[in-house]
Amino acid sequence: xxxxALRGAVAFCGPSFGDGAVxxxxxxxxxxSAGGALVAAVRDAGGAEGEAxxxxxxxxxxPVTCLPRGSVLLPGLVDTHLHAPQFSFTGTRTDTELMxxxxxxxxxxxxxxxxxxxxxxxxxRLVSRLLSLGTTAALYFSSVHVRAAVLLAEQCxxxxxxxxxxxxxxxxxxxxxxxxxxxxxxxxxxxxxxxGIRSIGSNLVEPAVTPRFVPTCSPELLEGLGRLARxxxxxxxxxxxxxxxxxxxxxxxxxxxxxxxDQLDRAGLLTSRSVMAHxxxxxxxxxxxxxxxxxxxxxxxxxxxxxxxxxLRAKRALKAGVKMGLGTxxxxxxxxxxxxxxxxxxxxxxxxxxxxxERLQREEGCSAEEANNRAEASEALTWRxxxxxxxxxxxxxxxxxxxxxxxxxxxxxxxxxxxxAGVYDVFPSSDSSLDDSVxxxxxxxxxxxxxxxxVQGAVVRGSLG
Length: 465
Hints:
Blueprint: E1 2-13, E2 22-33, E3 38-42, H1 48-59, E4 64-66, E5 71-75, E6 77-83, H2 98-111, H3 116-132, E7 135-141, H4 146-159, E8 162-169, H5 183-198, E9 205-211, H6 219-232, E10 235-240, H7 244-253, H8 260-266, E11 274-278, H9 284-293, E12 296-299, H10 301-307, H11 314-319, E13 323-326, H12 338-364, H13 368-379, H14 383-398, E14 413-417, H15 434-444, E15 450-455, E16 458-462
Parallel strand pairs: 1-4, 6-7, 7-8, 8-9, 9-10, 10-11, 11-12, 12-13
Antiparallel strand pairs: 1-2, 2-3, 5-14, 14-15, 15-16
């Protein structure tokens, strides 16, 4: 039963990227229950279906709020990969190779999360910042410490952010303070963290199994975590084929089975409830494995530029049937903003497109025009594709019932000011369409354009009025 309704411009997300990924409706009508679920979503409030819903709402005494002129409702942004302990050094230390960066910067920062005071400060500020940036849901890596993972989940629940939180598991190739004694202890600690997060009793937070990546997890640990995930119905997150250095490390550790995809799959960690970060070095065969298992990729374009020795061919992975969302990958990514991640996904796809065009000209003798056209069709993402990945795609990857503005979904949303809000200049003659206005916000806007943040129907930042 509806408790309130909203009328105005709304960006609806379709079931997949590409044509129809984002449909902009200038006069839509959404009805929301007291529990924060969408009970009706009509794209044309002035049409027959909209008028019937308005009559029903009026008969039931349900208030209808007209959204401010020059605004639009977007689905909430979903960050599918970030490392909470690394927030304290975000924006720094980006000129180092991945494995060295872990040893010199990341592991010390994560070791510090043994202190509840330090963890509470970093996590509290991180969740607050992400909500202000419009991130309504996130999949978090915490540290190896059980209490830190529970503290992070408590912060998310307290501040009203939807979150899946994983206590990191490692039993080798990591320094003291970040590594567990053996696989048995690590699995036991992961189970304890999951129980602690569930004991919070919030429908906004849930635990995840989180083997950091194959180089720091023994086969015994991977198998134990796979078993725990199956028995407890837990989401799995990890890194996969992230960089040349990571791939070489896996091959050196396991010459008999040199690819991390094989290691993770054998341990039962690639399932429909798995989210693997990066995947830059995945082969076509390995993408097919992920697609068959129903596993998702967290595409992190910024950190890929800095640490992965390449860019993910995101469109190729999507066309192969792999589910995908976007991640900021704090602090490998230099910004906590999902808008920045979405823009970076478009730029990264254009870089891949240009490389593919050059290959087609060099290897297949295509003309520049033909090569560019073929490469654009096979590799380039549009801003609508990237917005879909940052919202509906991420929600689907995490198995969340939100992100599209469909009946029955949780109402997670952003109210966005499209008038510029002092962030950028708007010229009415060039911004006559809703499409132009939303695209301009996508490319130029920031948190100053976000007037309200809504999670499960509750306004956690700003106001819808």
